[in-house]
Specification:
Shape: globular
Helix content: under 10%
Mean pLDDT: 96
Distance between the termini: 34 Å
Radius of gyration: 13 Å
Order of helices and strands: EEEEEEEEEEE
Strand content: over 45%
Number of helices: 0
C-alpha cells in the first residue's frame, strides 16, 4: 500500500492550497482516512478525517470552516482544500488510512501513512 501526498507549497496568509493523497488501492476498502500535520519538535496533530464509505467528516477546531476534506473514489484520492491559510498552519502535512484501534485524533491509530508534503504560510 502506498499513499503519496502532493500539492504543498508556499503561500501568503489568506491564500489557498489543495493537498492530494493518491492511494495505490481502493480507498473504500478502508474505514477512515485522515490528514495530520506536524511541526518540528511537536506531536503530529489531527486535522481532519473522513469515513470513506459514509462520507462523514470531522475537523479539528483550529481548521473548521477553513479546511475541507473530500475523496474521489474513482481516482482513489483524498483531498484537503485549505482556504484562508494562516501562518500557524505551516507544517508538514500527512495523509493516513485505516484506523486499527483508537480515535481519528490518534496518530497511532492509523495503519498506513504517506511521506508528507510541506505547507508554508507567510
Amino acid at each position: 500500500v502506498q499513499l503519496v501526498e502532493s500539492g504543498g507549497g508556499s503561500v501568503q496568509a489568506g491564500g489557498s492550497l489543495r493537498l492530494s493523497c493518491a492511494a495505490s488501492t481502493d480507498i473504500k476498502s478502508w474505514n477512515f482516512m485522515g490528514w495530520f500535520r506536524q511541526v518540528p519538535g511537536r506531536e503530529r496533530e489531527a486535522v481532519a478525517s473522513i469515513h470513506t464509505r459514509a462520507g462523514s467528516t470531522t475537523y479539528a477546531g483550529s481548521v473548521k470552516g477553513r479546511f475541507t476534506i473530500s475523496q474521489d473514489n474513482a481516482k482513489n484520492t483524498l483531498y484537503l482544500q485549505m482556504n484562508n491559510l494562516k501562518p500557524e498552519d505551516t507544517a508538514m502535512y500527512y495523509c493516513a488510512a485505516e484506523i486499527r484501534d483508537g480515535t481519528w485524533r490518534n496518530a497511532g491509530a492509523y495503519r498506513y501513512w504517506g511521506q508528507g508534503t510541506q505547507v508554508t504560510v507567510s
